[in-house]
Amino acid sequence: MKLSTVIVTRNRADMLKNCLNSLVRQLKKPDEVIIVDNNSSDGSVAMLKGEFPQVKVIANKNNRGFPAAVNQSINTSISEYIFICNEDIFLRENSFLKMISFMK
Length: 104
What we know:
Elements: E1 3-9, H1 13-27, E2 32-38, H2 44-51, E3 56-60, H3 66-76, E4 81-86, H4 95-103
Parallel strand pairs: 1-2, 1-4, 2-3
């Protein structure tokens, strides 16, 4: 399965950490996770690099807004499917398998 998960964030390190933990529980080894940080000042980027080194981080030097950040991530994605979400979601069991099955 080739699935990129894209999360755009700004100053929500705690929510982002919870979201990524639920993602890892779902997929064990995700194909690709891209985080676009819109110039956070709460240590989000450092937390990502320290606790989730497997994710690709795009650290913007200013807040580009959600649509521009999503486009940034899509342009770097290598996957067949892209799941775009916010950092405040918590994934239920088998969420990704159900989504991929539906799309196929």
